[in-house]
Each structure stands twice: as structure tokens, then as C-alpha cells.
Amino acid sequence: MRWLLFSAFLFSFTILSAQNNQLAQQYFRDGEYEKSAELYLALSKERPDNSFYFDRYIASLLQLQRFDDAESALKKQLRKRPEEVALYVKYGQLLEEKFDEAGAKVQYQKAVDELPADQFRITQLANAFIGMTKYEYAIKVYEKGSQLLKKKGLFSYNLGDLYRRKGDKEPMISNYLDAVGNQPKRARQVQTYFQRYLDKDGLQEAQKQLYTRIQEADSKETTYPEMLAWVFIQLKDYKAALRQARALDKRLDENGERVLSIGQLAANSRDYETAIDAYDYIIENKSPSTAIYLDAKREGLLTRRRAITDGYDYTEEDLRILEASYLEFLEEFGTNPASARIAIQLAELEALYLNDLDKAINILSDVVKAPGVNMKTQASAKLALADYYLMQGEVWESTLLYSQVDKKFKEDLLGHEARFRNARLSYFRGDFEWAQSQFDVLKASTSRLIANDALDLSVFILDNLGLDTSSLALQTYADAELLVFQNRFDEAFTTLDELKKSFPGHELEDDIVYLKADIFLKRRRYEEAAAAYQQVINDYPESIRLDNSLWKLAGLYEKQLDDKAKAQELYETLFIDYSGSILAVEARKKYRELRGDAVQ
To answer: pLDDT confidence of 5, banded at 50, 70, 90?
Structure first.
């Protein structure tokens, strides 16, 4: 019975204490400090082991400016609990409130001097200083705490955080790297901080410190070399990153995944030389029976192709060397599900760069017939095959293949693409009304690119069909576009000149200039292309071709004409003055990239 009464009393006391705690917090939040001080004093007496209640009692007194009461309470508490060195911080805070800066510093230093060899007390005191943004004192606490506990680097991560808050990059980097050395699992978190808070100079400082650590570390240690490779990637120094990745791959006898990743990053950043070196390393050092070997072979071919064609600066010999690499790959692996995409790339090379449509059609026909090829890959091959038939003038073969893909992938982007190309084919042939009806449907496509192209062509047909009693001018322009599609550029120029002569002052004038600019670009006559795009911008401010002209002209200045400042200016004009264009978002990214911003 006595035990039951005691249990009931204890339960009631606990409930009352919890209620008082909640009430005290509410008073404190509401600024009723007289009431919160009274309750927190009672709670601190009930629970002397809970420092929070006493801290809030002192905080309430300070808010009330009852400095003498607060000082008396602090001195009394220090006599009772001298091991709670965080009380000195409260005392210092009190003295600061009384404008006694010198006295406050004495108390803060006393807190550091009286620090016990107790990890909990060390962390508690550091947090007390951090709460008052006195980072220098918190740093002193952690540094002394490491010495007292005789555990070097125990608080490295905390110190890194403090130096980060102070903006002291060199010691911040050093302490974070110490933390990673002690606990490698922190590497990702530290990388996030480095990415967020370090500029180029800061990353180069991290690189310097990592070099020193790698030289001093055990040769089997991989944490710092991995971190260094990551820093190189942030600096976009892919060649140096690859050097680290290859060394780690050999040291750890890995499967090449690390090297492949560097290769892909380098390729995406157009550092094709480094990317090719990465893929070649895998091909030379990994077994042909592994999946990564085939990946490296495929990626290597694609990167070699991009290295040649992206800059439009290539020779016939360059293309033939690339062709030989593709043929060697297909000879090694055959035309099968794993190599189908490579065969499609080779067909593109043959058709669009080497002008051998027959060879391209034969390659794609093999892909379409090959058993086991992924249905979407097969559909992509059919779309390309249809394009090449159209380039040869085989209209019925083209429309049959487009229709097959449309039917098979009706609600898929591949189906939308096939429908768009079939509608474009009808446009080339002069069936404008049917083509426009298809473009109107495709304006709702989930692909922004298809939707935008469909909208442009729909508006273009509508505008130009309504201008004349006949569609002769529009048909002549469509004929010229088909000739460009078929790479029959001289005939296209002649057709456009005849169109302008036959229909002087026609609304198609801006379109004629724009299409000529595209032809100049395809023929790598960059100065003439730039002049034509500029003419669209200057002379036809209402043209639907204007945003595309700005985009292409900016790309010319950026890549071929080597005038980054002019390119940046054009990208800025595009995303500011034509914000509704589908190209505006990409133009903003390009602008920021040229300005030197970190673009994700």
C-alpha cells in the first residue's frame, strides 16, 4: 500500500513537472519573463542535474535586467557545480549586458582554462560559445579538448564547421580533411561543403593540401587520392582527375567503373581527348568479356565522332579514320542487340558526312532485321532509314516506315517524332492542309522540342497559305527545304533565288534568308552564315525565325568565330527579350556558363 501511494505521488509529480516546463516555455516565448523566471527557478531546484532550466532562469533575469540577482545565482551555482564550465559563459554574457567587456573576456577565458577532460563538457562549452557566435572561443575549446583527451583530430569536423562560419578557408579545409582522414564516411558531406563554399581559389588550396597529405600518407591509403580526384573534377581538370582514377583503379584492382565515370564527365564537358584516353585505358586493361569493355568501346566511338563533328572542323581523312573504327567495332561484335546503336551511328556518318546513302541504308536495313534488337532501338533505326530514303527521293518507302513507328509507339515520344516527320514529308510534297492538321495535334506533344517545331510549322503554313490565291510560293520554299534536307545545297540556293525573283517583297523573304544561313552553316561557311542570321535579326524584327537566328548566331560566335563576349551578349538578348521562346532557358544557361558561373 505504501509503495502504491509513493508511485502515485511520483506519477503526479512527474505530470506536474512536465506541465510547469511547458508553461515556463510558453511564458518565455510570450515575453512574460517574471513568470518564466519563477517557474524555471522552481524547475532547476527540482532537477538540479538539468542545466537547461537554470540557463533559462538566468536568461529570464537578463531579459528583466535583474543583473544582481543573475550574478548572485551564477556565483552560487558555480560554487555548487564548478565542473559546469559553461556557467562562466553565462557569467560573461551577464557582464557584457552590463557593458563590462574586459570582465566578460576574463570569464570566457576562465571557462576555457577550467575545461575538464570530459567530452560532454567540452562539447557543451563549445556549443555555449557557438550559441553566442563567439567562434574564436569555441575553436579554443575544441583545440584544448583534443589535447586534454589526447585524441588528435577528435573535433576536426567541428573545427572545420567553425572555420567555415568564420570564412577562414585554409584552416577550414585542413580540419575537414582531417575529419575525412579519421572518418572516410564523412567524405560526401565534406564534398558538399567544399562545393557550396569554395571558389576556384579555395579548391586549388584543397588540391595543394591534398597533395601534401598524399605524400605523407600510407601508400595503400585511398581516401585522400579519391578526394583529390573529386577536387580535380570540380575544377574541370579532367586530365588530372583521370590520372588519379587510373592510379586508384590499378592500386585497388578495380573493374574500371571509376575511370569510365571520368571519361563520361570529360566527354560531357567536351574534353574529348581526356575522355578518349579514359575509354582507351579500359579497352587496353580490361577483359573483352566484361560489360564495361563494351561500354568503353561504344563510348569511345561516340566520343571520337563528337570530337570530329562537333566543331565542324574535320577533313575527309578524319571521317575515314572514324569510319574504319566503326567498321572494326562491328566486325568484332557483329550487328546484334548490343551493337545496334553503334550501327545506327555509323549509318549517320555514312549518310550525313560521307554522302554514301546506299551504304547507310544497307547498314540500317541489317539493324531493322536483326533478331532481338530492342523495339525502341529498332524504331530509331527505322526513323533514320526513312530519312535516308527521303534523301534519295524514295517517298513511299519513307512514309511507310514513319507510319510503322507511329502505329507501334502511338503514345510514346518515338511515335510523336514519327508523326512529325511524316507530317513534314507531306509539307515537302505540298499537302499543306493535311500537314498543318497534324502539326496542330503535335503542338500538345509532351516533347517541348517536337511541340515547338510543330507550332512553328503550323503557324508558318497558316501565314503563307492565306497570303496568295495559290500556294506556289510556299511550295517553292518547301521544295528548297527538301533539297537542303537531301544535302543538295546548290540546287536549294538556285530554288531560293528563283523564289525571291518570282515573288518580290513576299512575306517569305525572312525565311529565305534564314534557310540560306542554315545552308552556309552546313557547308561550314561561318562568316556568311553569321551575316545571314544577323540580317534576319536586323531586317525582320517580327519574324518567327528571330529567336532561332539569335540562338544559332550566338552558337557560331561561341564555337566557330571565337568571340565569347558577342555570344554572351546574344544569349542575354534571347532570354530577356524573347523569354517565351523554348530556347530562352537554354540561352540563360549558356549565358551563365560563359560568364563563369557554376551551372548544374
So the answer is: very low
